[in-house]
Each structure stands twice: as C-alpha cells, then as structure tokens.
Specification:
Helix content is 87%, strand content 0%. With 130 residues, the protein is an all-alpha fold.
C-alpha cells in the first residue's frame, strides 16, 4: 500500500509539473488512472523479469530468447501473434544481410582470384620472353 501511495504521489507531482509547463489541468480521476496504470506496469515488468530468469536458469542459459518471450505471451493470442510476426521479420532480415555479406565476400574472392591468375599469366609470359 505504501508503495502504491508513493507511486500515486509521484505521478501527482509529475502531472502538476506538466500542468504548469503546458498550462493544462489533470483531474483527480486522471491522476489516479495514470497512477494505477504505472503501478500495474511496474508490477508486470517485475513479473516478466522474474519469469525470464526462471526460464533461463531452467534451460541453463544466461540469454533470454524469443522462444522465452513467446512462452510467456502464449495466454494472449494477439500478443503472441505479434511477437511471432516480428520475430520472423527480424530473422528474415538477418538472413538477407548474411546473404548480402556472402555475395560480397565471394565476389571479392573471385576478384582477388582473377587478379592473382592474371598476375601469374603475366609472370609466366615475362619468364617466357626472357
């Protein structure tokens, strides 16, 4: 309760500062709603962080993966769908970047091989002339 009161007080102070700067007013109900949302959001973040740590420890990992995020989001089908879509977009983007790097490096290798071959031919011709 004390924590919730502290969040409400802090949100009230912030709203008062904004009200003075922007020449607007916040109703008590608005401040209460913002406080409640803030308090719940902070609780949710702590909840998820704790669960991520548990999942990682269980899997003997130190890195949170997209599969961990999907596992925690499975109760909300729309959130799970969004996370899956974004994950696939990122994966496909990473694959495209890797392909571009491969093409650049193979083109550079081919260019280097052609230059070396040309140098060898020129060197061979020079030795034949001598």
């Amino acid at each position: 309760q004390r924590l919730k009161a502290a969040v409400h007080y802090t949100v009230g102070c912030l709203c008062q500062d904004v009200a003075e700067d922007k020449d607007v007013q916040f109703s008590k109900q608005t401040i209460a709603a913002i406080s409640e949302i803030t308090f719940r959001q902070c609780g949710t973040e702590v909840y998820f962080k704790g669960h991520f740590l548990i999942l990682c420890r269980h899997a003997k990992r130190s890195t949170v993966t997209t599969e961990d995020v999907k596992l925690l989001a499975r109760r909300s089908t729309s959130l799970l769908k969004y996370i899956t879509q974004k994950s696939e977009e990122i994966t496909s983007s990473n694959m495209e970047q890797k392909e571009r790097k491969k093409k650049k490096s193979s083109a550079a290798k081919e260019g280097k091989a052609a230059v070396e071959q040309e140098a060898a031919v020129t060197e061979s011709e020079d030795s034949n002339v001598a």
